[in-house]
Amino acid sequence: MTNLVKKTKLVTLAALLAFGAASQASAATITFGGQAATDGSGVTSSRIDASNQITALTVSNGYFVETFDSATSYPIGAGGDTQYNIAGSSAGCQVNSPLGITPSALGVVGVRNDSVPNVAAAPAGDTTCYAYTTPETIGTDSFVDIDYSTFLTNIGTIDASLAGSTIDYLGFYWGSVDTYNSFQFFSGDTMVAEITGPELLAQFNGTSGNQSSPASNTYVNIDFSFAESFDNFRVVSSGIAGEFDNIVVGLTQRVPAPGSLAFLGLGLLGLGLGRKFKK
Q: What's the predicted TM-score (pTM) here?
């Protein structure tokens, strides 16, 4: 399901002047917690409607949601990508969003709606479709890259008012967290944030691989700074398996306020005059 952001951030002169310092700061803030999803998918972001359904309110609030369920496609009834569905285990499943999904050479990615021992387990309370990655050989790091760069490039064709938007928020429901799982977030080729299984389990004193405890099945929220923004992420696992659902992305158009632009123009004019005087 695709829900699109129409948020606007105002960039002040102070923010522009602080850009250099901000670029040296941490690129992302990671927090935990969401809300109970009413569509049977366990937990979703508290920044959207609990149903995960596309509504006028969701669109105006500006979020994009991937639930891996064909029933929540956008536009409603639109076809999706079923190449990652598992025969006999993926009724009603599909990748709805225009994502570039690339498994590593030694990895497997799948979309399913059941749990199978030694294959994949649905996140706690999730009876809908979810995605997972697992290595072909246990103990060998495998990963799946989920790329939003093409989506961002073409976002203006979906909604002209969103042209030029960047991603400043990502949330996802992480199921049965294991010590060999991690999520890495990139801006181009630069990793701007990472959260590992051991870090999350330590945060909540959770048990690796527990399929029902809230301490091991957690909604993760990542807010990206002005200086950096995420455009693709990588799910890494060297064991069975890395499971996730309800990916929520927030887009932002960073448009300077008219007053700030005028103020900035005066500042640049002053710099130009200063250079002339120095001559």
A: 0.80
